Amino acid sequence: MAQRILIIGAGGHGQVVADILLQAAANGSDGQPIGYLDDNPRRHGQQALGLPILGPVTALPDIPHDGVVIAIGDNRTRARLFAALTARGEQLVSAIHPSALIATGVTIGPGTMICAGAIINPGSVIGANVILNTGCTIDHHNQIGDHAHIAPGVHTGGEVVIGAGTLIGIGAIVMPQRRVGAWSVVGAGALVQRDVGNNMIAIGVPARPLRERVVGE
């Protein structure tokens, strides 16, 4: 029997997750998306990519399912939901596009989303509830922390460490052996040549700290 998967979030990001799951199922995966849950009442009863929007997140216990994917782009919101759902015993499953190239031995945590065209090279460890977005490349022996978001077109060199909850913006480059701390933001198109600390916003070429990130930002 196919694993029944509910998608938390029916916006654009949720529909990308749905497409990944549908593509994976068409390529032999035993996971099958059965619909979305979304707290926007205007979406209830509608469909997206042929899947129904079944109600709010609070309806989760009432809908038979085997696993969930949190399809919300904001890292803090996604982390909060991950903690709550894990505490309730929910099975967090990963959504991995069949076109992603993942080296043998790569470790991927639960609930992680790996989009079309992503590449992960040997020795890398990808945390839980991570987003590896379209066409990003994660080189060898990277460590990507839980709840991080590596945006489309990002490239990381070898032995890079990205902290928990950090966003690496579209098209940014992180040079080999550099570290970006937890809950930081690296701006789109930035070039990280020096380490970035925790809770920092860094932009530019080369990337320089702009300011400390405000809690909740």
Give the topology.
Layout: E1 3-8, H1 12-26, E2 31-37, E3 47-48, E4 51-52, E5 67-70, H2 75-87, E6 95-96, E7 101-102, E8 107-108, E9 113-114, E10 119-120, E11 125-126, E12 131-132, E13 137-138, E14 143-144, E15 149-150, E16 155-156, E17 161-162, E18 167-168, E19 173-174, E20 179-180, E21 185-186, E22 191-192, E23 200-203, E24 208-212
Parallel strand pairs: 1-2, 1-5, 6-9, 7-10, 8-11, 9-12, 10-13, 11-14, 12-15, 13-16, 14-17, 15-18, 16-19, 17-20, 18-21, 19-22, 21-23
Antiparallel strand pairs: 3-4, 23-24
Compact description:
It contains 2 helices and 24 strands. It is an alpha/beta fold.
Report on this structure.
The protein is α/β, with parallel strands linked by helices. The chain has two domains: 91 residues, Rossmann fold (3-Layer(aba) Sandwich), CATH 3.40.50.20; 111 residues, UDP N-Acetylglucosamine Acyltransferase, domain 1 (3 Solenoid), CATH 2.160.10.10. Helix content is 13%, strand content 29%. The chain has an eight-stranded mixed sheet with strand order 6-9-12-15-18-21-23-24. A six-stranded parallel sheet has the order 7-10-13-16-19-22, with no helix packed on it. The chain has a five-stranded parallel sheet with strand order 8-11-14-17-20, with no helix packed on it. The radius of gyration is 17 Å and the shape is globular. The protein starts with a strand and ends in a 5-residue tail after the last strand.
